[in-house]
Amino acid sequence: MSNLPQINLAHTAFVAIDLQNNILAAKTIGPSSADQVLKVNNRLAERLTNTAALIVQVTVNVHSVQTLFPFKENDQNGSTTPNTAQLMMPIAHDPFAKNVMIINKQNPGAFFGTDLDLQLRRRGIDTIILTGVSSSNGVYATALDAYQQHYRLITVSDACADRDPESHQFFFAKIFPRVGWVTDSETLLANLPA
């Protein structure tokens, strides 16, 4: 875990990737369970609700993502199915939370094909606190795009998980430190401004 940069909430977005019912219901998820990951993300959201920070809930239409594999046979022939996934963090459905945005993506990363970058830049955001499932797919794709677009990136290890716990460990040991800071939720919460 590296020392965190100074965090200015007015320039910070908490981006939670794919914390939705159909993804969290995977048979294997680790090293933290789906319930543990949700608990940690909910703690972060509670701390940031109605502050100067932006909370971004990202959801993916897994049916649309499956059509992105042109070399595989699929029955959809490029058609799209409505996204029926339910975001599992209460903040996504809280009518009193004034700093929450929902981004619907069709790809692994939250930037490609969405207006996430535009929305962050309009608000002067330069720092992203990144969490979610899965570490080696949606979280990684979003982290790489954030790095390439010059955001300061803080990835929170115990707020993420993967269908393959070994992949999670590899990405947090070898990949995420190359594109930003890696921390745990306790350290992050201790470094957030009052």
UniProtKB/TrEMBL annotation:
| Record-given protein name | Isochorismatase
- Superkingdom as given in the UniProt entry: Bacteria
Instruction: Give the similarity note.
Output: Belongs to the isochorismatase family.
Q: Where is the Isochorismatase-like domain?
A: 12-186
Report the source organism: Secundilactobacillus silagei JCM 19001
Keywords assigned by UniProt, alphabetized: Hydrolase
| InterPro entries, sorted | Isochorismatase-like_dom, Isochorismatase-like_hydrls, Isochorismatase-like_sf
Pfam family of this protein, just one? Isochorismatase
Q: Name one GO molecular function term.
A: hydrolase activity
Signal peptide boundaries: none
Q: Give the gene name.
A: pncA_1
